[in-house]
Write a structure and sequence with these properties.
heterodimer; A: 319 residues; Glutaconate Coenzyme A-transferase; 9-stranded mixed sheet; 12 strands; B: 254 residues; 10-stranded mixed sheet; 3-stranded mixed sheet; 7 helices; 15 strands; 20% strand; globular
């Protein structure tokens, strides 16, 4: 059975959402109530950039189960989702912490033992699947993945002869996640969100999803958004909940605000490289389950590291 | 006197020389990013570098190499940032002259594997996967820079992640990929291109001090060395100094 929704179903689901102009600010601990076990969850950002880490952290603490997570490129967020049993299925084009640290031993452990699935698409295919979802069409044609073994593993994609030119194309199915988690630099209480720098696939993701949770470095007044409407990338009516979380991508980066917290990442990678199973368990306990709040997690990363990352993050605006 | 250098330094310098001023190059992270940036500092000030994170016209700063092509450091002094799908679609539309990637495993037809070692159903090793690799290799002319080891240069890859010439001959075109293809493979031992008809990899030039026997001994399939095989110019002091200046922490060149 196809996972692509019919157009009427897609429109009906959207029509049932409360899209009114209202304030949507909630506390971080409340966001788990928006996510049901088994949901397909689209995760914004890419690799170590603008990862909605605080939202993921909160879902792990709430012990959500069986989430099918989709992301353009997956980093240590994927390790944590597998190891916490929040997700047993990740749909992505690339999955490891970063090229700096080789192949993720946590990903390898879960995938090679068959405990979890890493469903691979090309990067463009991920983008066009979300684009189709955002456009309200069931598929889009692309000219990649053809002839590769990546395609052989994805019977959901269909080879197709173009009715105009006769050329061979690949149709990739729309991806309309149940829920999207996206971290931004600023938004207003209604959800008009501004993204600085690299936007990755986040605009399509917000439009494609049936529900959007934003975490934002800052919540600002609607007046401030209106002063620079060209910076607004996500319109309020796609958004269902907003949380203000400073350093909400830590230990990953948020463009113009902070770079990745490399020492913390190195600590993590070093620990899991010694023992992927116990190492990641220990990390989850120490950094996710035990802290009383996100601030306490940031405390564990340490002020020195936060300041270093912030200095580097801000430096993008130096001439 | 040839200056001493590491295998990765040699790879980066030989690769940088393949790029020509005025080209538009789509570069992957690691050696490709470094080599493209080096070319920009040496003989290609007008090189336009694209990154998968959504960057056109990057000018990476020395000592601030990005840990991936999705980090803010990729955008320093760039002409434009855009969405990741948009930057990949520039390849599909045809605006990119060269795709430039690293490789984990390559075969005689230039197919790259970055997904599985062993049977994909029960892999010995699950690798990180395609990223944009499949898209770049499907849509444009490719240069690959990689370590030359027998386990990396195999007759047929365990899994085609990023297509080269697939099974050789016309098979790439017949698969629905009429354009682009693997053009050049650069290793610490030699430079290779591909036969225009059979599409098999063949040595173009050996690096200084490397013998044909040595290259064959490190390659998992039969290579045909014809009399035209040349010798590459070794790195100059000037090239090495520029390269080391870009990566003072030696993130990628060790």
């Amino acid at each position: 059975m196809s996972s692509v929704k019919s157009y009427e179903r897609l429109r009906k689901d959207l029509a049932e959402r409360d899209r009114s102009l209202r304030e949507k600010v909630v506390a971080l601990k409340d966001i788990a109530s928006f996510v049901r076990d088994g949901d397909t969850v689209g995760i914004g950002g890419s690799t170590m950039s603008r990862t909605p880490m605080a939202l993921i952290w909160s879902l792990i603490r709430a012990k959500r189960k069986k989430l099918k997570c989709c992301r353009s490129i997956t980093s240590s967020d994927g390790d944590l989702l597998f190891a916490s049993a929040v997700s047993d299925h990740i749909v992505t084009s690339w999955f490891s912490q970063s090229i700096l640290w080789g192949v993720s031993k946590v990903m390898r452990h879960y995938v090679e033992s068959g405990k979890a699935q890493f469903e691979e698409w090309s990067h463009l295919a991920m983008g066009m699947r979300l684009r189709a979802g955002a456009m309200g069409v069931p598929f889009l044609p692309i000219r990649t993945m053809l002839g590769s073994d990546v395609l052989k593993q994805r019977p959901e994609a269909k080879e197709f002869d173009c009715p105009f030119t006769g050329e061979k194309l690949l149709l990739v199915p729309a991806l309309n996640p149940d829920i999207a988690l996206i971290h931004v630099q600023r938004c207003d209480p209604y959800g008009n969100a501004q993204i600085d720098g690299l936007q990755f696939m986040d605009i399509d993701l917000a439009l494609a999803a049936n529900k959007v949770i934003l975490s934002s470095e800052r919540i600002v007044a609607n007046d401030q958004i209106r002063r620079a409407p060209d910076q607004t990338k996500i319109p309020f009516f796609t958004v269902d909940a907003i949380v203000e979380v400073p350093y909400g991508s830590a230990p990953h980066e948020c463009y113009g605000v902070y770079e990745p917290m490399i020492r913390h990442m190195e600590y993590y990678v070093d620990r899991i490289n010694k023992d992927p199973v116990e190492g990641v368990k220990e990390y989850l306990d120490r950094f996710i389950y035990e802290p009383k709040s996100w601030s306490e997690f940031l405390d564990l990363i340490g002020l020195e590291e936060l300041l270093t990352a912030t200095r580097a993050g801000n430096s993008i605006y130096d001439a | 006197m040839t200056p001493k250098c590491t295998a990765n330094e040699l790879l980066a310098i030989l690769s940088a020389r393949q790029l020509k001023d005025g080209m538009v190059v789509f570069a992957g992270v690691g050696i490709p990013l470094l080599a493209a940036t080096l070319a920009q500092r040496l003989h290609c000030p007008g090189l336009t570098i694209l990154f998968e994170g959504g960057v056109i016209g990057a000018f990476v700063e020395p000592g601030k190499l990005p840990p991936s092509t999705n980090d803010q450091r990729c955008t320093v002094r760039a002409n434009m940032v855009l969405g990741s799908a948009e930057v990949l679609l520039l390849l599909q539309r045809g605006y990119v002259d060269v795709g430039f990637m690293g490789g984990a495993q390559i075969d005689q037809y230039g197919n790259l594997n970055s997904s599985f070692i062993g049977d994909p159903k029960q892999p010995k090793i699950r690798l990180p996967g395609s990223g944009g690799g499949n898209d770049i290799a499907s849509l444009t002319n490719m240069i690959v820079a990689m370590k030359h080891e027998k386990r990396r240069f195999v007759e047929n890859v365990d899994f085609i992640t990023s297509p080269g010439w697939i099974h050789g001959g016309e098979s790439r075109r017949e698969s629905g990929l009429p354009l682009g293809g693997m053009r050049c493979v650069i290793t610490e031992l030699a430079i290779f291109d591909f036969d225009a008809k059979t599409r098999r990899m063949k040595p173009l030039a050996l690096n200084l001090g490397v013998t044909a026997e040595q290259v064959q001994a490190n390659t998992g399939f039969k290579l045909e060395f014809d009399s035209a095989v040349g010798v590459t110019e070794p790195p100059t002091e000037h090239e090495l100094a520029a390269l080391r200046g870009l990566d003072p922490e030696r993130l990628y060149i060790d």
